[in-house]
Amino acid sequence: MDTVVDVPFRLLNRKAHINSIESYRAMHTRSIKDPEKFWGEVASEFYWNISWKRVLSYNFNVRNGPIFIKWFEGGKTNICYNALDRHIQEGKGERVAFYFEGNEPNTFTSYTYRLLLQKVCKFSNALLKIGVKKGDRVIIYMPMIIELIIAVLGCARIGAVHSVVFGGFSSEALAIRIVDAGAECIITADGILRGPKQIPLIPIVQKAIGICKDNNLVVSKVILKNWVGFKAEDEKFISWDNLVDTCKSECSVEWLDSEDPLFLLYTSGSTGTPKGVLHSIAGYMVYASLTHRYAFDYHEGDVFWCTADIGWITGHTYTIYGPLLNGATSILFEGIPTYPDGGRFWSICEKYAVTQFYTAPTAIRSLMGLDSHFLEKHDLSSLRVLGTVGESINSEAWLWYYKAVGKQKCAVVDTYWQTETGGLMVSPLPGAAPAKPGSCALPFFGVQVQVLNPDGTPAAAGQEGCIVFDRPWPGIMRTIFKDHNRFEKSYFSVFPGHYTAGDSGFFDEDGYLWVVGRIDDVMSVSGHRIGASEVENAIALNKDIAEVAAVGIDHEVKGQSIWVFCVLRPQGTLNEGEIILYSVPNLKLKLAMVELTNDLKLKVRQQVGAFATPERIVVVESLPKTRSGKIMRRLLRDIFSRVKKQKLGDCSTVSEPQVIKNLVKQAMTLQL
Ligand code: WTA
């Protein structure tokens, strides 16, 4: 745990932007002392149609009135212009923006900044032609292909608000998001290629549109990119290729207010439906760009690769916006790390001479488990920075990443952040300071992070507490779409005056931050953020279920896997007493249990998506509850987690201690 790895930075004959802890500290102090000056200077690098009047105004304390955050007020700009046109104006139009690497290794192509701009302009014109206007919400549900990026930027150019939905979500989950966003336009494709699988999207979209109709929302425009070759029988769908074909490849830019919305991205909270996290234009633009430049030590000529799906925030900020705003060359990869074999990531790194590689601990752990020849046969000497995000990385995986992938010559940056923060918040900077495997190190510029005790006082070094941020940074979300009240309650009510991240962690003696995990009921499965309530609502649709709790249980590769604990209805079709403890005495009951398990898994797949399928369904006699009747998921997690914890945490609030005894007994029999 306490290993310190000194700056192992492969400088490749050039200096890191921040090459000592002193220069990091000096710049961080400057960003905190005078944020207006600091961020004003950063923002000046961009093109503004009208300059801002005021860098920052905000209220971070609910006691002083409504929470608000405004950056660069009075300014008018456009993020698409800054991501594409600006570089072409500067003579960089022939630079590659994206190397597209398809699912099959022999499908690849590249897009220069000039070509990408032409395609984006054509698509913006297409959107205007079918009546999409500034401020309209547009749902994008697509595979990881260049058209997804074109769709995102095409919206941004005309001021439409994009909301990308991860391609793994089911029709029900997609419909919830379309309805909440009030979107009348969907951009999609016929299917997704994922390794050996071809997943059709048309039926999912059709079903989602039907659900929207039942909820009084008419989706009147569907643009369909033909990609896999599935036929669309629905005449209402507009063919992407036909629509774009007749459109001009120039499109004027809509100059937008700094605080106009840029995108909505739905994410899970501990309760209720997914939250539409709203990000606005100028602050997000400035923050995405600066974090990308410094945390990955991006320099001209680098080839940057963030493997995250664009359906999540990491893909928004570090596959699309951050790199493009810095005029970088990136990889867009459609496939999966294990197809056609377990060396695919490394073969792509070699093929394009990738310099920065950014992925999730779950991918690192799964690749670590494969035969070493998948890695060793590739030349990875171009790599300088290795990034990770999404969950804490255990030191074993960190060290494998550092040694086996980076050959002890690359900086490993463990970046801690959230959908809500827009960009990374706490991270080592390559070349600036020694790293500690498992710690995300030090706050980024403009970020003030604290760990607080429950009474709001700062926790001492080594003491676990709640992670909070003290002041706004430009990338912070502005609200939850249509629910500002929920925004204030979720993030600003626990510790007035601070943004509460919902994670616990501690600082060590050197001021390095260690994230421990969520304090709420949000689970993280293979880096995918899933709310307990979303899974529980799906399970509760089965008529045999009386009560349910979904919990993330420690998992060696995925970080967590979902276990569902349920109490059966006494009058249900199953005989609960006999199923308990899996001491199923007869075949009939055994089959009933299999049937129940299958049905519950199917319900989750239908309501949320296959990536949220529970790993285990455990029937229990009772769920542990507080005296006020709240289910204690934390306790279930402690009892059933593979990593045997010595203590069970505080059980003093459990209403019936016998419930715990029974659960522990049951956990023992499950051969964990
Ligand atoms: C977790 C992903 C430990 C954390 C960018 C956070 C991490 C949630 C790290 C946000 C990290 C993210 N170390 N935990 N480096 N990065 N997390 O919104 O619990 O999908 O609150 O954003 O992931 O997940 P989200």
UniProtKB/TrEMBL annotation:
Domain AMP-binding enzyme C-terminal: 534-630
Record domain AMP-dependent synthetase/ligase: where: 90-478
Keywords: ATP-binding, Ligase, Membrane, Nucleotide-binding, Transmembrane, Transmembrane helix
Parts of the chain that traverse the membrane: 138-160
Domain Acetyl-coenzyme A synthetase N-terminal positions: 24-83
Parts forming coiled coils: none
Swiss-Prot/TrEMBL catalytic activity: acetate + ATP + CoA = acetyl-CoA + AMP + diphosphate
GO biological process: acetyl-CoA biosynthetic process from acetate
Database matches in InterPro entries: Ac_CoA_lig, ACAS_N, AMP-bd_C, AMP-bd_C_sf, AMP-binding_CS, AMP-dep_synth/lig_dom, ANL_N_sf
A GO MF term: ATP binding
KW Transmembrane (keyword) present: yes
Keyword Nucleotide-binding: yes
One protein family per Pfam: AMP-binding_C
EC number per UniProt: 6.2.1.1
Similarity annotation: Belongs to the ATP-dependent AMP-binding enzyme family.
Name the UniProt record assigns to this protein: Acetyl-coenzyme A synthetase
